[in-house]
Amino acid sequence: MSSFKTLDDIGDIRGKRVLVREDLNVPMDGARVTDDTRLRAAAPTIAELADKGAIVLILAHFGRPKGERRADMSLAQVTHALRDVLGREVTFVDDCQGEGAEQMVALLKPGAIAILENTRFHKGEEKNDPALVAAMAKLGDLYVNDAFSAAHRAHASTEGLAHALPAYAGRAMEAELTALEKALGKPEHPVAAVVGGAKVSSKLDVLRHLVAKVDHLIIGGGMANTFLAARGVDVGKSLCEHDLADTASAILDAADAANCTVHLPYDVVVAKEFRADPPTRTVNVHEVAADEMILDVGPAAVEALGDVLKNCRTLVWNGPMGAFETPPFDAATVSLARTAAALTQDGSLVSVAGGGDTVAALNQAGVAGDFSFVSTAGGAFLEWMEGKTLPGVAALER
Length: 398
Ligand code: ADP
Ligand code: MG
What we know:
This protein is of the alpha/beta class. The protein is built from 15 helices and 17 strands. Helix content is about 40%, strand content about 15%.
């Protein structure tokens, strides 16, 4: 039994009004939704509730209207796209609280699906204002939170409502929490973490939390340069936070004390200019010239890291190993991602990855579908990797 209620616990909901918090914050080009990934993620919960005869009232934010009603941030624009994804009728209700909304909701029949207007049109949303929570709660009998990506925020629609109505995790939320629990909550050891990306400073709390949790910490990307520099390596013109040398050393010491093996690259791909396909050299980290930049982990290190993964049961990954957007500096990320994907498909590794650029890199490598779970929840995923309790998740606990 999980620590939170799911749709399996929801009982007979025929004719009940269910407020469902979803992530409908899709990218738009004019009136067109350019990527419906989030709508497809929301669909199973919405369809299941409608099939059970509930009146499904979808709550979501859209952009950052800061408490003002703005036509360009109206969720009316998303209604068509959701209708296409679900293959069902979707109504739009032009407020998420108040008498007008109550009257419109009262007209809906069991099995109906409606999107309620952008919760952030009300200042009380981001303040988790009890008055707004109460006004929204009047529209529903039950609350389902299906938006893990918004769960790191204690807002009225993500946290407050869970205390005002009987609260359940939707299917997408359930899948996310189950995968994350498997990866860092109660993982099978040995556990490896790959942490890459541009800067140590953006992921200090992630690194600090992981050294106490994982058996192998693989550091790549720009942040590896800061660690190499802290160990006395001359990284030339590489992206490097020299002022964080002491912090990096402290993290390495903490890893030592916790029996966590830290893997830094020992060969690297360097260039004098940061552009597509410049002249490059693959060198030992001690051979970087003063006018060169480290832009990717080298092939020998990647092969050794693949062997580390072969001996692990669990992998959590955030941050690319190199400047993957610019060829050929995607090589290490692509190669290690393919190794992780193959081990996952063989059944020897549980692999969970997240982060905006990480997801893009896994898609580029063509292996996102071969990982056990890929989280598209940028901020919430990172806060979870920092070991933080997410208020929207905590509020769902039994
Ligand atoms: P995520 O979005 O998955 O959390 P980040 O935003 O932390 O990842 O990091 C991704 C960025 O890090 C990418 O833009 C990538 O180009 C950059 N990066 C990775 N390695 C290097 C490097 N060696 N030098 C400069 N930038 C790098
Ligand atoms: Mg990023």
